[in-house]
Amino acid sequence: MKDLVKKMVAECVGTFVLVFVACGVAALTGGDLVPTALAFGLVIVAMAYSVGRVSGCHINPAVSLGCALAKRITWKEFAFYVLAQFVGAVVGGIAIFGIAKMANLNLLGDASNYAVNFALEGLTAGTIFASLLTEIILTCIFVYVILNVTDHDSGAGKKAGLIIGLTLTLVHLVGIRLTGTSVNPARSFGTAVAAAIFNGEVEALKQFWMFLVAPLLGAALAVVLFNLLNRKKEGQIV
Fold first, then answer.
1. Domains, the chain, ranges and CATH?
2. Residue 212 CB neighbour total at 10 angstroms
3. Residues 217, 133: Cα–Cα separation, whole Å
4. What is the rounded CA–CA span in Å between residue 103 and residue 46?
5. What CA–CA distance (Å, rounded) separates 206 from 202?
6. Does this model's pTM top 0.85?
7. How far is residue 69's CA from residue 163's CA, in Å, rounded to a whole number?
8. Which band of pLDDT confidence, cut at 50, 70 and 90, is reported for residue 238?
9. Cβ-count burial of 9 within 10 angstroms (0-12 exposed, 13-18 middle, 19+ buried)?
């Protein structure tokens, strides 16, 4: 139980840093494409080589689901990881929005689609489907890479954290102008809660279901793809 508590604290801290720093950059730069994408990627690299030694640095319920489905963590660990991630995300969101409020900065100005995740404009059946599809595909790519580079046969070794961080940068470069790029239900929930508290903006909370369902579906799809492509044929040694 002591080890599980340490892992929970590591996941909470890591998710806090992700939301506070990366979502902070997204908001404060108005969602400037390259700085925002790099911020998310660099946070993952930093956390991978710090809290990663304790918990594996999931800091994302979709990643934890992928690991649970791939039988790399238990379902008990999954439940506690997710709880810690949501707590860290909410605290991180409240911290960055609270500091901005004290500094008289409006983080929901032109950056509303970057600090906080929203579906594509219009909220028609088409834009909702496009938003869901975007998040499913991007999360699938992200989790699929994680499953591969953290596999003991991958050869990635100590470079895994760097590869994962660069992959998160890549998916943000694609998704920032679409949904703001979630691929992480905890990150979306944390900033949605903070936006509601400090700005009275509840639309993000109403749309949160999309950024919960789509990343989890994307993670499950990544596991299916990983198992399909990495299944060893009978008699295959490597």
1. 2-230 (1.20.1080.10)
2. 18
3. 10
4. 27
5. 6
6. yes
7. 22
8. very low
9. middle
